[in-house]
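Problem: given the chain below (97 residues), write out its structure.
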Amino acid sequence: MAHIKPLGDRVLVKPIEKETMTASGIILPETAKEKPQEGEIVAVGQGRRDEDGERIALDVEVGNKVLFAKYAGTEVKIGDEKYLIMKESDILGIIEA
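Solution.
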């Protein structure tokens, strides 16, 4: 399996898929599913640089569960797994347990 290291202020997120069955037991086809808006961060970049060339650290880290904008990021496939690469600014918040 290939390893992806995001650059700058980008993060690699594994989307968390929602249930494919309704409460009444109806199985939803792939085309009727909502795009996931939650995921787990699996890799982070080093952060963007400010005007002086200093690195600005990211507020998120590997393992964080996050909520992101519905159509955020670029979908990539590594092996059989789907991931999203997005800028940290596309992340709306960290989900705390």
